[in-house]
Amino acid sequence: MVDEIAWYDRSAFIAAACDSTIPGLVSRSRRTVECDVDGGGDHGRRRVSVTFAPEDDDVRRPWERDPSAPLLAPPRSVADRAGNKIDAVSIFRAAGVRTPPSTVLAAGATAVPDEVSTWMRDGAVVVQRAANNLIGRGTRLLRTRGEWAALTDWAGEPLKVSRYLPGLPVTVSGCVGRDATVVSGVSQQLVGIAELGAGWGTHCGNQLLDDADVSQEVLSQCRWACRAVGEHLRGWGFLGVFGIDAVLGRDDRVWVVEINPRFQTVVSLVHAAEVERGLLPLLGVHVLANTTPLTPLLATDDRGSPRLRSGQLVLHFTRSGRVGGLPQTGCYRMSASGVVLRVPDRALSRLAPDEALVWAHAAEGDRAEAGDEAVLVQFGHRVATVGHPPRLTSEARSWLAWLRFATHHPTPHPDPGRTGPGRTAARPHRDHDR
């Protein structure tokens, strides 16, 4: 179909997990302009571009102006509508999937509706802005009426208030094609782990799930919900990779809470599982979905449970300021005594039990805010218990201790927008999940 697929992101972790199974796939940094917007005189090659979050990319994207390498992404208006946390409720209802009870507060509303008061008496509520950002800063948990005052900075916009449902947070990854919706990995979403510098609801990592963790019936519900949402999105003109966030309730029912109309961090783990099973990774399916019908090319639109039990963690900056330094991106091995050494790079699907892949998501001198993602670390095994709240394994804690030592969190600077005479610090690209 194409000779070259240019993957644009701040680091190559999602493309790297494809493990060279997609010919012509190259990774290019979004931090610098690395493509020739005039096509480079190479008009004979069929080239396309793919990026992590086209609907929420706040940097200039010169590759969009390259006529010889079109960006494969849904129209911005379609992605914006799918990613709107308030409008998502109508999508879930139209798709026939279960979603928590919710109500919408008009911009400027100050009174607490009776139904919200009832939910808060029984437990808590989740408040979301329509245009939530990628790491959950647009989502808050309120347990008491007294916490309502914390929403004053959002008073000028409508808000969705949902009943909080305790349970296991999961993500289901899929891809909408012209004729079918492909459903792939189901993962546990690790959120709100304070040890990783995160607040409530902040994405802290993922680990793949199978029927040894939750019942096959529940996994089937998750995949059905993802497919139903994808089929509805196709009617809007949406094509390509997407995911849903859901909660596995204590009654084993699946409650869908969000749509992510883009790639997600967990797709790297999904890629590794697909490679291990001899399947075309989702990034490749995304390209096919934008160029040709999927049914004649793929044996099934349900990729089942993964055999690979990989996981990943995200360390967050705890202070705002200029980044002092991060561990170098690469593969590392931890000895029994806790010594960590750099080893030759290898794919995620080929990691040994004592190895991890480290991906720096910022660079020395960058301006970072407290809560921004600093480092992503990937493992070939589980990193936490399957449950909510999750508990990190002893191996994960050992790696976290090393990460804390190797990561120099930002230090305050009198002029945080400056890095030297006449120079402005590059703002790190927005963090990935939620």
TrEMBL record:
Give me the stretches of Basic and acidic residues compositional bias. 58-67
- Which residue stretches, if any, does this entry annotate as coiled coil? none
Q: Which domain of life is it from?
A: Bacteria
Stretch list, region Disordered: 58-77, 409-434
UniProt KW keywords: ATP-binding, Nucleotide-binding
Q: Which InterPro entries match?
A: ATP-grasp (IPR011761), ATP-grasp_PylC-type (IPR003806)
List each copy of the ATP-grasp domain by range.
89-288
Entry-linked PROSITE patterns: ATP_GRASP (PS50975)
Spell out the Pfam families in the cross-references: ATP-grasp_3
Please give the name of this protein.
Answer: ATP-grasp domain-containing protein
